[in-house]
Amino acid sequence: HVQLVESGGGSVQAGGSLRLSCAVSGYRHCVAWFRQVPGKAREGVASISSPVGTTYYRDDSLKGRFTISRDSAKNTVYLEMYGLEPGDTAMYYCAAHSGALCDSWTLYNLWGQGTQVTVS
Asked: Smallest Cα–Cα separation from 88: which of 113, 64, 112?
């Protein structure tokens, strides 16, 4: 039974940085970070494949400020966020699926509980 546990959220000032962690128990080919603000749909941010480690970002603006990575030895996927803006305020979720397409955001079917990021 695969579980995802996020940590690392918090409150920061604009321009600051945070690193989110997702501890993954069990194997899934694709692990991603999503975010959601109240009243809006959950959106993919970045994903990474195993074992190759290919990364995907929802768009170029995120790729310049966010970096997804993984530590296979620790079974942990990270999302490092720099230059945070108030618009990045959201609940951030770790998600996973076993399919081939890690940049197909609708395939993710396993979710963590989320960690809140607030930028002021």
From this structure: 64
Helix (H, G, I), strand (E, B) or coil at 87: helix
pLDDT of residue 33: 98
Query: Are 102 and 48 contacting, i.e. CB atoms less than 8 angstroms apart?
Result: yes
User: Given this model, what pLDDT does residue 1 score?
Assistant: 77
One-letter amino acid at 52 equals V
| Region 21-32 average pLDDT | 94
Contact 29, 50 (CB under 8 A): yes
How would you write 10-52 as a 3-class SS string?
EEECCCCCEEEEEEEECCCCEEEEEEECCCCCCEEEEEEECCC
Helix (H, G, I), strand (E, B) or coil at 69: strand
Are 66 and 57 in contact by the 8 Å Cβ rule? The answer is yes
- The DSSP bridge partners found for residue 22 are 6, 77
What pLDDT does residue 40 have?
95
Question: Residue 78, SS3?
Answer: strand
